[in-house]
Specification:
Number of strands: 0
Structural class: mainly alpha
Distance between the termini: 103 Å
Order of helices and strands: HH
Oligomer: single chain
Radius of gyration: 45 Å
Length: about 150
């Protein structure tokens, strides 16, 4: 069912589309561009030749020399040793940081467990019992020693 509201919405949308496509179309530049105020001052030569087909004169670009690309030299043994030393130092620092963070985390978890146990929310886990041997398991006889020694 089309209501008046729907018709108004379609009317507004169509007007907006008309404005968008018709109002922003490309236009042709004027045949004789107006001279700039700087060119009208006495003693200033005209920046653009009116007989020229383009508005801006071509700017000459100097030719660039092509330089061959030289691959970088491989690192020396000294550079490789220094780099390995720096990587090992960074690794040691990271391991120290990891140990410190692990210790902080353990302490925080212990504090949490203690608080929860104090509140009676979490009881400490019981120690695991050794596995029980079922009664119907087959039993082996004790080994017999030939000399009678046990």
């Amino acid at each position: 069912m089309v209501t008046r509201f729907h018709l108004r919405v379609w009317a507004v949308l169509s007007v907006w589309l008309l404005i968008l496509f018709v109002g922003h179309s490309y236009s042709q530049p004027p045949a004789n561009p107006l001279p700039s105020p700087l060119n009208t001052l006495p003693g200033n030569p005209p920046a653009v030749d009116p007989k020229s087909p383009t508005l801006y004169p071509a700017i000459p670009v100097p030719a660039q020399k092509l330089v061959p690309v030289v691959p970088p030299l491989p690192p020396t043994v000294e550079q490789l040793i220094e780099k390995l030393e720096s990587v090992q130092k960074q690794k040691a620092e990271l391991e120290k940081q990891e140990q410190a963070l692990s210790e902080q985390l353990r302490e925080a978890l212990q504090q949490h467990k203690a608080r929860l146990a104090k509140l009676g929310i979490e009881k400490p886990a019981p120690k695991p019992m050794p596995p029980a041997v079922p009664d119907d398991a087959p039993r082996l006889p004790p080994p017999a020693f030939p000399d009678g020694d046990k």
